């Protein structure tokens, strides 16, 4: 690639020229006005602070062998040398004086705050022996790995399949699984990949310019698209920074988004703006006609008439009544979307889909507009994510596990798109199983998930969780309740490959431990990455390889062979060999590109950090089919989509067969916070608790001093009219009461939110109970107390300066760390997608005397009641052919096909009507 110049014709460059990366010299800005030259080796890696995987360039001081700073990597095809604030802040995380540097073992009771330093060998022997015993005793489903931020491609899929367990758990059902189901029902692919840069119209149901998935790469391309003439509409109840940049702001009432999108679809159909040829060719309309109108002639014309009837109620006036957005604006946006035919780019990450019961239909309704405008997989349109994302294949792939873990995929949610992760405590407390060994990895469920006191209960209970190992780069509220706290590397301290659907095109990038890489360039060799990292901070790849050898030391269990060198079977795999093999064999075009520069594929990735596999990917569904798959379109056999019909499924027979005939088409489900479900007499309002700040990321930014200096408050957004009604001013103490408790925050009175709605951002409200178990850049110390039969969390010591080896810690001027909310949210598992529906019915009022800022109170007993209310809405498996879930619908860590069948005898989930569990989680085949 060519390195960007600061301005056309200028000799100044935006980045150091690559030929000088081995020995880059610049003056130390901190030494100013003295001119002190520093010598650097520039080593690329990938940011690990959100999912976008932007490129970073570590400046390794060659004299001190220390990382001095991180900047952008200009070679990275997605981020193109640019980062958000969280990328460069990686240096804070690495240099945090309070970070965890050595493996720790708890002493005393869980959560008591006493720790002893141990060796990695002790850790591996203990955990490896324990897992081995569980496997030998046939308790494979008692080992669970629960991940927050994966940061790699297929690594854990291979490891857990090699172990033969159904033990993958993730955060996806508190994040994106609702939208994923909506997309998967259409095309078999569960995420969209908009080509913003070439779009004529962009519709965002998110705040993508400032937050959300892939926001830095997307924001660049949204602005590229706008500069090239695209119009931008943003659907968001908040006037976010993104909405403020839009041509149209659609401040929809939360949960009404699908109604607005379907009204737009109706406008396209009524006004002749839909591409009917595309609809006829690429959708499964014949199935719809056969099933829904068996008496009618199966003609496309009859289908279009029937479709208009299906959406007859969705007039702009109806959409206005539901959403509060003027009908004229809905109409204007619909017409522009129609005019953008073939180049309509959109994204729904995450609020509308993740906030609401039935939110998965929001994604489905949005995709209807993409299909009606024939914008699927086009330049400027929206592709399925998998076309733009690289996934590696390994030298030896373990087979699907012969297990089905009902703690992860209970029978009640046969269409749950991901694991029912956030109800794990509720399932454990119902006696549906136990966990012998539980890994949390870059995950903080106690704080991130709803209903955190339930997590606290089960994490304390050794009869439910035998051993908890927290693999984490930072202290977290969850790590406090671990048996082992195992420090894992940050962005510049570990190996991974990552690829994301950030644009039209496919790329792969390489995260590496930059000190190890720099010292290797200078001729040193390392046995383990922790020998080059600070303290004994390790990386997961090497940890899992070593642990697998402890589980199966002689190879008799059939596990070890997956962790042997592909170059010398029988010898333990090294982390270099793992990536070397992938780069040599599994990345198309990379070996040739490397050879052209006189490098091996591994050297190419280690020096450049990323490789663009395909610059532009379009219309994959129209490529010739690989026999016997595919579908006949216009007399030709083409690839199509991985759905039962191989077409885009505007009508889902799956939904009918699995008990939801009313949801067979893209539709509108009235959310659990629909106005008709609120008790206005009690003053109920809707709380949006999900929006992100551009400067923070959940748990990991807690020890980044720059970021916490910028953002350390999350006040409650209250519209001016509501504030007047409630007698609130900016700064007033407010109590926000949910179904199971309350929290106390300060009001921020604004007109940037629709009346009747309040909002409070995620990321803030961290805490530490015990000294040394949380970053003092971000966590006040709190105490948990039993009050009125419930649990009160109260801050007992705010933020302030503290002595450390970093002089900045004595300069902390902020005293606030924000307010926690999620403990006060009961679980709301959507009966179809399984997603937690985040929005809350709340009552907002002035805080009564005695309340203190930051108080969080949770009633005892209500959590399980609310869980059971939502459980009662489900329609459990088995479905057709006695299946647990449709075979065509993928799931993470896909088991062997026979495991999809509900056994004739053996484990059964609890029926929708309640009652004791019929089986539990013993092995099922
Ligand atoms: S968007 Fe920011 S936090 Fe996310 S990967 Fe890029 S630089 Fe890192």
Largest sheet: 7 strands, mixed
Shape: globular
Give the bound compounds.
iron/sulfur cluster
Structural class: alpha/beta
Instruction: Give the neighbour order of strands across the main sheet.
Output: 6-5-17-16-15-7-8
Terminus-to-terminus distance:
53 Å
Q: What's the total helix number? A: 26
Report the mean per-residue pLDDT as an integer. Answer: 94
Number of strands: 31
Which stretches of 5+ consecutive residues score pLDDT under 50? 907-925
Radius of gyration: 27 Å
Give the strand content.
Answer: 15-25%
Roughly how much helix do the residues carry, as a percent range?
A: 25-40%
Can you describe what's shown?
The protein is an alpha/beta fold. It contains 26 helices and 31 strands. The protein has a 7-stranded mixed beta sheet with strand order 6-5-17-16-15-7-8, with helices on both faces. Strands 23-27-24-26-25-30 form a 6-stranded mixed beta barrel. The longest helix is centred in the first third of the chain and has 17 residues, at 120-136. It is globular. The two termini are 53 Å apart. Bound molecules: iron/sulfur cluster. Iron/sulfur cluster (SF4) binds next to helix 5. Iron/sulfur cluster (SF4) binds at residues 47, 49-50, 52-54, 79, 83-84, 86-87, 215-216.
Q: Would you summarize the structure shown here?
A:
By secondary structure, the chain is an alpha/beta fold.
Key features of this structure:
925 residues; globular; 26 helices; six-stranded mixed beta barrel; seven-stranded mixed β-sheet; disordered C terminus; binds iron/sulfur cluster; alpha/beta
